[in-house]
Write a structure and sequence with these properties.
This protein is mainly β. 0% of the residues lie in helices and 46% in strands. It has one domain: 6 Propeller (Neuraminidase), CATH 2.120.10.10. It is built from no helices and 27 strands. A hairpin with a 6-residue loop joins strand 11 and strand 12 (137-144).
Length: 362
């Protein structure tokens, strides 16, 4: 363990403690949670957040079963206009997926999670475009994976999905992360695709990571961020309740460094990483399972990480998202799932919660 891992797992922040924990040159304050939505009538889980500006957040809340079924996708939408302090009553929302970005010209771009299989090398995703981030115009967009190949998956879907990140380059081109199984793969592969026409079509740029010898499911659920020096940094799940792995690219995503595995002390920070580079240069990662956690790379490069700080302890998918709403201020949005993966029974409430977090350098 390097000197950067400075917080022992024996002393973590309890959920809702509204307390401050010191990590040497920086402190993390975890506030009391705000309830976004609570229901015992159906699932509410797997949240993602679209950030329209510093104060305006749109929570996309999954309501369907955790299965590959494009005909049964259901979600809800709740909106906050005060940086997560209060939320509108959720309304039915036809869109799903967690790949979303607000581009430099103000356009909001949304990519569907599932793709429709067309051929060995091509599938179709749904691309939504919006000026206000609330109403979208959708169209089909081809995704060319050559020289890799798609397998045909359940219900006519393709064997890779879009997940989490869309990054805009200086020249206006777009990079997006995907994962799944290509033909012949025995474990997950994470890839990077590129669009030079505003998301109307996509083609394979590179494989971010694929290593069938690595313990677990293989590199999946990638989260990508551009660092202050221009490098691309990607954190990925490898297996539930096992340490994640990361890599970086110094050439715009054409090639990637060998994978680095997080230490065993970080086994609880294992699924669905979400990365945010704060305005002061600190790189933040949210992830979990079991429970929900946050950790920091103080140099902003992702080379070394603090030990994780617990944000929530209890039943959860541990799929979460973070957004910076003011310098050093974050919202951390996650689900609470007492029924686990089953449909909640009457009186067993699933919840979406929003936790305010402050990060301050000393």
């Amino acid at each position: 363990m390097t000197s950067a891992f400075i917080l022992s797992l024996a002393g973590v922040i309890a959920y809702g403690a509204a307390d401050t924990y010191n990590l040497g040159s920086v402190s993390i304050s975890v506030g009391d949670p705000v309830l976004v939505y609570k229901s015992d009538a159906h699932r509410v889980w797997f949240p993602s957040v679209l950030q329209l500006d510093d104060k305006t957040l749109v929570a996309n809340i999954g309501r369907a079963a955790d299965e590959i079924n494009p005909d049964a996708a259901e979600s809800l939408r709740a909106i906050s206009k005060d940086a997560g302090r209060t939320w509108t009553a959720p309304e039915p929302w036809a869109e799903s997926g967690n790949s979303w970005a607000r581009l430099n010209d103000g356009t909001c771009l949304w990519l569907s999670y599932l793709l429709t299989y067309r051929s060995e090398t091509e599938a179709a995703c749904r691309v939504g475009r919006s000026k206000d981030g609330l109403e979208y115009v959708w169209a089909d967009a081809p995704v060319n994976l050559a020289p890799l190949k798609f397998d045909k998956a359940e219900k006519g879907t393709a064997s890779l999905v879009f997940h989490q990140s869309i990054v805009e380059a200086d020249d206006g081109s777009l990079l997006a992360t995907m994962y799944g199984h290509c033909t012949g793969d025995t474990s997950y592969r994470s890839v990077l695709v590129k669009s030079t026409d505003g998301g109307l079509s996509w083609h394979l740029l590179s494989t971010i990571a694929h290593d069938s010898s690595i313990e677990g499911e293989g590199p999946c659920e990638p989260s990508l961020v551009r660092l202050a020096n221009g490098d691309l940094f990607c954190m990925m799940r490898v297996s539930s309740s096992r340490p994640m792995c990361f890599t970086r690219s110094t050439d715009g995503g054409l090639t990637w460094a060998p994978l680095t595995r997080m230490p065993e002390t970080h086994a609880s920070v294992s699924v669905d990483p979400d990365l945010v580079l704060l305005s002061d240069g600190v790189l933040v990662c949210a992830a979990g399972r079991p429970d929900c956690w946050i950790m920091l790379s103080l140099d902003g490069q992702g080379r070394e990480w603090s030990a994780p700080v617990k944000v929530y302890e209890g039943p959860t998918t541990a799929y979460s998202c973070i957004r910076e709403t003011a310098p050093g201020e974050l919202v951390y949005i996650h689900d609470v799932t007492p029924a686990g993966w089953e449909t909640p029974a009457a009186g067993v409430f699933h919840e979406i919660r929003c936790v305010p977090i402050k990060i301050a350098r000393h």
